[in-house]
């Protein structure tokens, strides 16, 4: 797998140059994977799990990022928590995959698993994460074949695949200025000079709507408001011109006007650079505006996936229907009580038997939903659902 030099949106005379050492390390990845496939039992086991799931996706060969059978568990004193339990999805170049679901369903852990930054005592125990920056060449690399601290993974993390974290307040170092922190990112993943890196940082702060960007480059994170930190995080993630952007609640701390500007920026960058986006949010309104495909998660599992228009027009899973019913509409009367999903997400260490959603499901079938666990299966040409209502 090799990387190619791409012109950035940043107006620098010298252009955007990726770090040659990083490109070389990534370029050796495919060959190293070929060697490992014959002798590494762990990689072979993950590949077997991935191929034994739902079958090959019709678009998997075209995907820049393909996740198969991903399992991430936390080994606590109280027991094992299955935070991500066999997740499958594909993200195509130039498209946006939206991941939705209630808090605690495993969205953020899925994103962190892709970059291998799951905190202890969490551990990825199974699955395959295929990264294919040039799908036309079919030169994919299993990211899980790399050690989390390897040079190959460090070159990909932040350079090829960037992430906007959910908590900007805790994502910056309080001991260094913002300029030092964005400079470190650019120094690791580009060959720009110090002055070019500073100019690019200023340009990106201006792009995300932070006033006095030159001055703010010399300030510490505590001088930024919550919304400004969120925008600074977006600037740091985008400055390396990534091929894949993982956005975990990127607009949560922003006002509506700034949110619209950021979404417009992401979409422009996507069109200009054919960038793929994995967009995680609770805001279904944002999903309807930016996403091409939607994956619905519940208690670590994918319960529905399909095109965004199918999700909003014809949701299949009872959980998807309940999520959409909970959204206020223009026809909602004043003081009218909004529908809500009964109950709450079960404790991860006290998962119900059978379908995890059955204690809250309005379509619960006794003797079926509480006994067996449904598999994700196609219900039409576009949608896949994990529910016994569609079992033949």
Structure write-up:
The protein is of the alpha/beta class and 392 residues long. The chain has a domain at 20-282: Rossmann fold. It is 32% helix and 19% strand. The chain has helices at residues 20-27, 29-39, 41-51, 107-114, 151-156, 178-189, 194-207, 213-216, 226-238, 256-273, 284-290, 308-313, 318-325; strands spanning 65-76, 79-91, 96-100, 122-131, 141-142, 161-164, 244-248, 276-280, 293-298, 301-307, 377-378, 384-385. It has an eight-stranded mixed sheet, sandwiched between helices. Helix 7 packs across helix 9 (226-238). It is globular. The two termini are 42 Å apart.
Stretches where pLDDT falls below 50 for ≥5 residues? 1-17, 22-59
Alpha plus pi helix count = 13
Helix/strand order, N-terminal first:
HHHEEEHEEHEHHHHEHEHEEHHEE
CATH superfamily of the domain at 20-282: P-loop containing nucleotide triphosphate hydrolases
- Structural class of the helix and strand makeup? alpha/beta
Q: Can you give the helix content as a percent range? A: 25-40%
CATH architecture of the domain at 20-282: 3-Layer(aba) Sandwich
Q: Work out the oligomeric state of the chains in this entry.
A: single chain
Task: Name the CATH class of the domain at 20-282.
Answer: Alpha Beta
């Amino acid at each position: 797998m090799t990387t190619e030099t791409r012109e950035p949106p940043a107006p620098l005379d010298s252009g955007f140059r990726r770090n040659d050492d990083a490109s070389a390390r990534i370029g050796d990845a495919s060959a190293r994977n070929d060697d490992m496939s014959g002798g590494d039992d762990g990689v072979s086991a993950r590949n077997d799990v991935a191929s034994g799931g739902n079958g090959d996706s019709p678009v998997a060969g075209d995907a820049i990022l393909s996740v198969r059978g991903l399992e991430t568990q936390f080994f606590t004193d109280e027991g094992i928590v299955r935070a991500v339990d066999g997740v499958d999805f594909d993200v195509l170049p130039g498209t946006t995959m939206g991941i939705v679901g209630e808090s605690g369903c495993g969205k953020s852990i899925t994103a962190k698993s892709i970059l291998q930054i799951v905190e202890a005592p969490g551990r990825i125990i199974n699955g395959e994460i295929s990264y294919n920056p040039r799908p036309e060449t079919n030169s994919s690399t299993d990211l899980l074949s790399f050690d989390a601290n390897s040079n190959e993974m460090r070159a990909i993390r932040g350079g090829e695949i960037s992430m906007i974290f959910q908590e900007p307040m805790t994502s910056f170092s309080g001991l260094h200025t913002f300029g030092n922190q964005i400079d470190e990112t650019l120094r690791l993943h580009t060959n720009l000079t110090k002055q070019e890196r500073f100019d690019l940082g200023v340009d990106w702060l201006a792009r995300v709507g932070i006033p006095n960007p030159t001055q703010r480059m010399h300030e510490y994170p505590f001088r930024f408001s919550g919304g400004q930190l969120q925008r600074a995080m977006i600037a740091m993630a985008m400055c390396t011109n990534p091929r894949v952007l993982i956005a975990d609640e990127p607009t949560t701390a922003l006002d509506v006007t700034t949110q619209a500007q950021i979404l417009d920026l992401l979409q422009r960058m996507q069109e200009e650079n054919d960038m793929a986006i994995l967009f995680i949010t609770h805001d279904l309104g944002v999903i309807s505006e930016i996403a091409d495909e939607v994956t619905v998660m519940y208690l670590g599992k994918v319960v529905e996936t399909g095109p965004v228009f199918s999700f909003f027009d014809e949701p299949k899973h009872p959980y998807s229907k309940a999520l959409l019913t909970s959204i206020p509409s223009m026809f909602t009367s004043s003081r009218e009580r909004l529908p809500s999903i009964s109950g709450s997400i079960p404790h991860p260490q006290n998962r119900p038997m059978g379908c995890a959603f059955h204690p809250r499901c309005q379509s619960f079938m006794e003797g079926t939903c509480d006994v067996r666990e449904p598999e994700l299966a196609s219900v039409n040409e576009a949608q896949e659902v994990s529910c016994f209502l569609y079992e033949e």
